[in-house]
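SAMPLE LOG
Freezer: B-3
Tube label: C17
Construct: single chain, 130 aa
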Amino acid sequence: MSLDVSADLLERAETGQVDDAEFVDCVRQSLPYAWAVVSEVANRSRTTSADFADHSVPPPSEAERGQLLRALASDAIRGALERHFMVKLAFQNCHRVAAFKLPAVGGDTYRRFISPVAQLRNQSPELRDC
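STRUCTURE (predicted):
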């Protein structure tokens, strides 16, 4: 699923006059499922004593899975979401999203979460084709 970009926003993008807030709003409107997941983990990361909060519930449909993949696979979208929510996003499989507190990035918990070992441990036969 691509972003739903208004003609006005596209015109301003052509001249390089789009700020992060406008881009983030476009993402919010275009990818509502991804927005809901990321905002939920970002908000929970602020209220927990842990280094991060995560979401590991598979999306309800392929459309929602596509939104999550689009948001987290795009450097521009992912970066804008991280700046907006002031977290570092980490992603495993096709649906496990974590929001790390910025001071935790580079620490043991973060390095373990993003490691190849963690990726392998989070595989299962039902997720093979996700």
